[in-house]
Amino acid sequence: GSPPCIDDADLESYLNRRDVRSALNIHPSAGQWTDCNVVVEESYINIYRTLKDQVSQSIRAGKRGLIYNGDVDLVCDFLGDQWFVEDLGFPSITPYIPWHVNNQTAGFVKHFEGFVMATVRGSGHMVPTDQPQVAYEMIKLFLKGQNF
Amino acid sequence: AFDEDRVVRLPGQTKDIPFGMYSGYLNGSDGTHLHYVFVESTGNPATDPLLLWLNGGPGCSSMLGFFTEQGPFRVTKTGASIEPNPFAWNQLASMIFLESPAGVGYSYNDNGNYTIDDDGASYNNLQAIKSFFIKFPQFKRNDFYLSGESYAGVYIPTLSIRLLNETSINYKGFAIGNGYLDQVKLGNSKVFFSYYHGLIDRDQWSALTSQCCSNGVGEDSCEFVQSSNPTCTKLVGKLTEAIESSGLNPYNIYDRCQTNNDLRRTTSLSSPGIGRKYGNHKHASAWKLIKATLTGHSDHDIEIVPRSTRTNSQLKGS
User: Fold this and answer.
1) Which of A12, A21, A32, A37 to mutate to test the interface with B (most CBs of B within 10 A)?
2) How far lies B208's CA from each of B11, B199, B205, B220, B234, in Å?
């Protein structure tokens, strides 16, 4: 969902300026920009209650995975996603251990065969907004295929 | 590079953008046109990985990611200028921010059809990726990754499965942040999370666990979402109401909630439609996801009481 307690009014105002739309090559058929579209949200049909099969199959096919959670988010909390990860049934390579950025605990991590699960300490749902440097280091480690 | 889509400078910037930036449309199926912004890596675009980012919702725009999360720019509070983001991910990878499905952000459909499901969304996302590589064939050999957050926990795995069959794309892996990966697990965990973070007291917790758990208290022995015990279901319903009325920012329980600002905007804007967007819809949207996991129902089954229809005393209380 859209971030309920975050004020995106200034961004909406900016992205609906005529000069901004022009700079971004926006087609005239496109409507007013809103952060979240009510029509799409209300008519969207959710099929999958769990993505276990898709995630498992992708990892088995050799695709590397990172599942990360800001640990103070209530909407998609870390605990539920941690249970999801454990339920995938892949053997773990490391125990659940802290990982660090600038000598500070950035969160906790567990490496599995083919993928990694990490928390980002003190972050909510939008991790790159709440903990930008930690998020940056995290995605760097992932893209480079390095352990946390 | 696809020069028609090139963005040299955005309003609010005083200098040209020092890396390749492109904005335009990628084609999905049946008249679907998905808006994208592509920013090249500031390292070596020829060899750095290519990373797709999707925000969730469903229905939310990846321009939120671009301008408020890991994109290269931030819009200042007044909206008058653009600032660089020192932790932009395009220092590591070239990034595609895709507004999906049609109807989200600047994306549209020629027929005005905005009803879609998970499979339709992932199919259109795949078509958009293929459309990207037609516009930018020089990136076809780069390592390609998927990423996103929230409901992208559905978008990414379903798209990943489709990519497994696309041998012409150098697909390497995926990253999912705070993903909507399993409704029932997230519903059950939310009760534990709420207790562990002091959102409910010991009496409520004892009542919940005595009615919803068997053989101890834990992930495997507690079933809050799909309980066959009506007392348990009732207690979970009360918990849902309690955390909703707490006034907490559900996306970060330790951050402040800009509700007051939202309400001020609601009352200060002349158009009720705009006011509803700033004030109520956002709340309804977030709590919808929470309720969906806690009750085990899909979003469509859940009736949300918009904030504006609550009484003044309820608002003051929260």
Assistant:
1) A37
2) 54, 14, 5, 15, 10
Classify B54 as helix, strand or coil: strand
**What's residue B223's pLDDT?**
94
Q: How far apart are CA B75 and CA B68, in angstroms?
A: 8
More confident residue, B260 or B274: B260
pLDDT recorded at residue B71: 97
Which residues in chain A have Cβ-Cβ distances shorter than 8 Å to B118?
45-48
Chain A residues in contact with B265 by the CB 8 A cut-off are 7, 9
In order of B73, B118, B146, B164, the CA distances from B159 in angstroms are: 27, 10, 9, 9
pLDDT in tens, A28-77: 999 999 999 999 999 999 999 999 999 999 999 999 999 999 999 999 99
Length of chain A: 148
Query: What pLDDT score does B6 carry?
Result: 97
Interchain pair A4, B282: CB under 8 A = yes
Residue type, B203: D
- Enter the ipTM: 0.97
H or E element in which residue B232 lies: helix B230-244
Question: Which of B99, B251, B287, B308 is best to mutate for the A interface (most A CBs within 10 A)?
Answer: B251
Contact indicator for A16, A32 with CB cutoff of 8 Å: yes
Question: From A5, which residue of chain B is nearest by alpha-carbon distance?
Answer: B257
Which residues of chain B lie closer than 8 angstroms to A20, CB-CB?
10-11
What token pair was written down for B33?
A: 């046109």
Disruptive mutation site among A32, A77, A123 for chain B (greatest number of B CBs within 10 Å): A77
Chain A residues closer than 8 Å to B119 by CB: 47
Specify whether the CB–CB gap between A80 and B196 falls below 8 A. no
Residue type, B271: S
Which residues of chain B neighbour A79 with C-beta distances below 8 Å?
189, 192-193
Interface contact flag, B253 A74, Cβ < 8 Å:
yes
Give pLDDT, residue B297. Answer: 61
Give the whole-angstrom CA distance, residue B60 versus residue B66.
12
Angle in degrees, CA B184, B190, B194, rounded to 5: 165
Confirm if B305 and B241 have CB atoms less than 8 A apart: no
- Reply yes or no on whether the pLDDT at B260 is more than 60: no
Residue range B206-225: mean pLDDT, rounded: 90
Mean pLDDT (whole number) for B58-86: 91
